[in-house]
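fold-stage: in
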Amino acid sequence: MILLADSGSTKTEWRLISGNGSVSVFKTIGLNPFFVTADEAGKIIDRKFLKIDKSVVQKVFFYGAGCTDEKQCEVINSAIRSNFKNAVIDVQSDLLGAARALFGEEKGIAAILGTGSNSGVYDGKTIVENVLSLGYILGDEGSGSFLGKKFITALLRNELPVTIRKQFYKEYDLNKEQILNAVYREPFPNRWMAQFSVFIKKKSSDAFIKNMVEKSFKAFFENQVSVYKECSDFPIGFVGSVASNFSEELKKIAAEYNFEISRMLNSPVEALVSFHLKQK
């Protein structure tokens, strides 16, 4: 059996692939090593796969947000190892997972726009160039958390159109104190801010919101795509809920930077299943 996972900052999609090719689906919260410890991640995995005979799992492929270096990968590796003691474990970044899902063994620029954002140049085997995303405080341009942050800032500074501000407060039943508490005192503020990308999409025909979204995607291309040398020679593909939900807006901005998006996936996990089945 093969166990495969694609983990963002919000959720983890798991696929258990049996010897006959049948696939079972599981979900947990996101297991980003910057936000969970090895012990916490291990317990989450244990609870989710409690009814599975873990001894028969031979390989585990985990692609995760935050798995950026050996230290962070070891957090996840340790959590998986504590549950699947007989398995060969391979922990990689979610960016490599996105690249393999989008391009297989062909080259291209892989981009992620979900709760967070990231990008990298893929040579068909590995990521050869990568601009640091820097997370939701310093970077994550174009992501759900970035859009949410821009929206909340405009909301609290009374910069939003009055009708949209009223609709937001009616739909979410929040006040200024609750918003600031969620951002500065509660865990996972990036996830909390990213949730508002759904509301932003619903209001994207409004001129103010449209401009905010376009500026966010321009910031992504400026800071995380255009910096790659000879980047226009590569096809570009996107994975993630924000890329999928704002596909038309994203295509428009991509064209302004002379890119045509070759492929777009809401989630890379099914393409990753196909990729690894071909490697058997």
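fold-stage: in (second)
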Amino acid sequence: MKPVNLSASLTSLTRFLIDRVIPHHCPICYREMTQAGLCHICWHSLTFVSEPICESCGRHLPSSGPVRLCGACLHHPPLLHQIRAPLYYDGAGRDIILQVKYADRLDLIPVIARLMQELATPLITESDMVMPIPLHLWRRLSRRYNQSAEIARLLCRHAGASQKFMAGHLYRQHHTASLGRFGLAKRRHILRRAFAVREETRPLIAGKHILLIDDVMTTGTTMTSAARTLRKAGAARVSGLCFLRVR
């Protein structure tokens, strides 16, 4: 007779009882549910970036063809090797990230990680280091955490590559204004020398493929500025991954 795993049986029973006594709720709209996760209404409000996409910047292409590059990347190849995002900045995706950034909803980080994991795992596997886009010290003190770092840390753990998570090598040396109200040219000017690499970590970066992770990409200026800093420090290649991208 096969022995009974008492510990596993008790765990299953405990989980069953908790599910019956304490119902699940959608973490966005708080609608009561029978199991954990997003409710069907919030799920269907997510807008996924669908194929075909530009192999370089990750934008959706109107049609597939032999050349999988958008017009912008053909004329001006981006500094980053590739950029990917699973979702557009709208619907429940926007609600999730705004609650994480401004309402201390760190409980939503695992939701974000689950939505990013399919894209993230191969990118993490191909890279040597994973770095979050850093916040300036003053902004981090006011917010108490860097949401991009929390996302990157969990993605690396789920990919079985926690050792690749490297926070602190790249930092913001200037406190910049919020970029939301500025256009592309102004963003580039503000971020021109916003990032820096610590001198003692330059030998670790030299020749490496680095994956940058951020929460939202609007114009790509922030990620490009960070990538330029890393390339100047000796990185061989820099790719980017974000949770949401603005259309």
